[in-house]
Amino acid sequence: MTSRMTRRTLLAGTAGALVAGHLTTPAVAAVGSDGFASVNALGQNGTTGGAGGTVVTATTAEQFLDYIDTVGALTIQVSGTITISSKQGVRPNKTVVGLGSSAVINGGGLDFYRSYNVIVRNLRFTDAEDDAVNIGQNSHHIWVDHNEFSGAVDGAVDIVRGAEYVTVSWNWFRGTDKSMLIGHSDGSSSTDKGRLKVSIHHNFFDGSRQRHPRVRFGEPVHVYNNYFRANELYGVASTMDAGVLVEGNYFENVPFPVLVGYGDSGPGRVVQRDNVFVGSGAPQTAGTVQEPRGFYPYTLDNPADVPRLVRAGAGVGRI
């Protein structure tokens, strides 16, 4: 068995992917982020992940945990099912991407603690015992794209504790409960206010219950061109003076599509425009919100087309 130190030495001089000690041809093309993950800020020119670094392939949990803990740029291709526990830290400058349509992270999740410039794509996250993806502690420039989430005990994707410049796009939330929390708690104003800049677009919230997202303090949080279907508790909730723009989405059979305030949390601010509501309740709105166009350009798809576009494009095997 190759030791951790030996494996890292091999990585430093390897031009292709390392699979069980053998080199293979890199299989992942460079991609560009959008939304807040694409913004030049905090010394980072958008989100490029492991571009320019070595490409490796993980087929075991041992390899996977070693690669995400490696210092430096690295593209980590995931092959098959990787079963881990708890939340495992990911160092900066990584692309973690599934091969084909059968790559799975099972049982545990990914944790970002003061990390940055990471892309997570084309992975199924199943049965995480805590969060599937936790972006926290001032992490920034994280792009979560074309993944599928199911069965997490806590959050599918949480963005908390001063994280910012995050994009969550083209993911399939399949019957998740706590789909996406932005802002850790009502007492987190000192760490979260003025941060938590997040773009959420073209996701399929499919029979998921709540938090699509639930936001505290963040502004602007831009929720656009998502497909909300049969969300039992609510769609989007803006609380604790958060500023959320809900734009160009399609809500189908969602009794409470947009809420101002939730539970014990005080009210936030919400602007909604150009959304479609089918078999759904009326959205709540309040106040004004900073426009995301001041940070990045974007083009809305026709909201009437969103169910078709999202069903065809969200989830794994579509990149």
TrEMBL record:
GO terms for cellular component: extracellular region. One of its GO terms (biological process) is polysaccharide catabolic process. Residues 51-257 form the Pectate lyase domain. SUPFAM superfamilies: Pectin lyase-like. It comes from the Bacteria. It is found in: Secreted. PROSITE patterns: TAT. SMART domains: Amb_all (SM00656), PbH1 (SM00710). Residues 1-29 form the signal peptide. Keywords: Carbohydrate metabolism, Lyase, Polysaccharide degradation, Secreted, Signal. InterPro entries: PbH1, Pec_lyase, Pectin_lyas_fold, Pectin_lyase_fold/virulence, PEL, TAT_signal. Pfam families: Pectate_lyase_4 (PF00544). GO terms for molecular function: pectate lyase activity. PANTHER family: PECTATE LYASE 18-RELATED, PECTATE LYASE 21-RELATED. Belongs to the polysaccharide lyase 1 family. This is Pectate lyase.
